[in-house]
Amino acid sequence: MKRILYFLIIFSLIFGQLGAAMFSDAHADRAVNFFHLLKHTKGKFYGQPFSLLPWQKPIIRDVYGTLKDDGTRQIKFVYLEIPKKNGKSEIGAGAALYHLFADGERNGEVYGCAADRAQASIIFDVAVDMIDQLPALKKRAKVIASKKRIIDKISGTFYQVLSAEAFTKHGLNASAVIFDELHAQPNRDLWDVMTFGAGDARSQPIWWVITTAGDDPDRVSIGWEQHEYAQKILAGEIIDPTWYPVIYGYDGDDIYNENNWAVANPSLGDTITLESVREAAAKAKIKPADERLFRWLRLNQWITSKLTTWLPLDLFDKTVGDWNQSEMIGLDCYLGVDLSSTTDLTGLALVFPPQGKLLEWRVFWYAYIPKEGMLDRITRDHVPYDEWEREGWITATDGDTVDYTVIEEKILELAKIYNIIEVDADMHFAIMLTQRLEKAGLTCVDIPQTYLNMTSPITQTEKLVRDGQITHPNDLVARWCFGNTSVAKNGNDNVKFVKESKGKTVIRTKRIDLSVAWINAMSRALLYKGSTDLSARILSDDWGM
Hints:
The protein is an alpha/beta fold. It is 38% helix and 18% strand.
C-alpha cells in the first residue's frame, strides 16, 4: 500500500458493534464550542479563536458525542498519530482544558504524560497560554508553574504534568490522561501505570494519545504496540468500541510528490506551510540523515532503518592534505581522545584551528589496539590490523587491553611538540587518565556523548569537510573509521555518532573511534579565538618559516 490515510470511516463499523450506544449532538456541540472559545498560541495565529480544522472537528464531535445508554462517554482511548507541526499540541492542550474545566467531574485528576518533563511541559505551557487569553478561565484557574500544575478552583479538578519516572505514579485516580509523543517513552512503565486501573473510580475516564510515528526499527516500544493495535482496529481486524484511532501518514517511497505531503499532513496550508515542507524536502535530497527525518516527522513513517552514514567516503579522499606534521610544531591544538578497553580502538586526534599563517583546519590521528588477540580479529573481522601496524597507522600495545600508560606517555610526548590547549574526552571512560594528565599540567575537558553536545561539532565539521576547509593525512585507519561512522538523529534535528547496528546488535567489526576522537576535539576547537603567545612567536617571520 503506497498511501495511508485513515479517515473516520471505520467509526461506522464501530457504531455497528456498539449496541446501546447513541450519538448526542448536544454533547458533541458542547465540546466543540468549548474548543472554539480557546485562542491559538502560535505564530501568526496567536490570539485568534481556536476554530477546529475540518479534520479536527469530526474527531471532537465523535469522541464527546458518542454515549453509552447510561449517558456516559463510549470512547475511552483516542489515538491520534500525525506528523509534527499539524497542531497536535494545541488539540492536546484543548482536551486537557476541557477535562479540567468543562467535563463536569468533581475533584478530577487530569495528567499530561510524556517521556520527560520537558516534553510533558509543551502541552502544559500551551494550556497556560490559552488560560491567560481567556478571562473566564483565568479567573477560575490557579497555576503553579513551578510544579507544572493547574487547579480549577470551582470543581477542585487539577491538571498535573508527569514524566516517565513511573515508579512514583501508583495510586492515581485519573479522570483524563493526555499522552504526548508515546513513541518516545523509554519503556512501557508509565503507560502501564496510567492505563491499568488508573481510572476505575471514574464514570467516564479518557486517554488521549497524541503522537507522531516512532524511531523504533526493532518494533519493541510501547508506541509501536499501540500503533499496531490502532491499525488493526482501522483495518477491521479488531472491534474495540472504546478506541477511536486516527492515523495520518504516507508510507510509500514517492516522498517528494507534494500530493503525498497533503495525504500525511491534514493541516498543510493552515498550521504548516507548504514552503517549510519544501525546505525540509530539499535537505532530505542531499543528506541521508535528513531523508530519514523527513520520512519520520513530515510523512509519519515508522522508521525501518537503524542509522544513516555520516559522509561519503570520497570526501575523506578529497580532503587529504599535502603537508607533514612537522609544519605544526609549536602550534595551538586540541587533543581529542576516545578510549577503549578490549575490542575497540583507542583514538587520539590532534585538531589545529586556523592560526597565523595556517589558513585551514588540520587534523591527524593516532590509533591503538591490544596486541593479544589481534591476529584472531584480523581473521574474524577481515580488517588488516597487521598491515596498518607495519605501515605505522596503528600501534599494538602489549596485553589483551589497550595499555593506558602508553596513551599517557604519547600525550605527554605530543604536549612537548605542540601547544595542546585542552585534552577533550568523555570523562566517563577516562577518569584515571585525565587525572594523571591534569597532574602533569594539561587541561582536560569532559565531552559527554549526547545529542545536545555532539550536534554542533558534527554539523560544523561536516561543513568544513564538504567545503574542503579541513585537511588531514591519508591515514588508512582514520579513513576506515570515517567510512564506518553512522549518525543517529532525534526528533529535534540533533545528531550524534553511533556504531553501525544490525537489529539490536552493534556490528563490532566496524570501529568509529578516530571519528569520535576527532569530534571530541572539534567540539572545543570550534571555540578557538586566536593564537597564543607561543603560536604567534612560532608563526612570526623571525621564526624562519
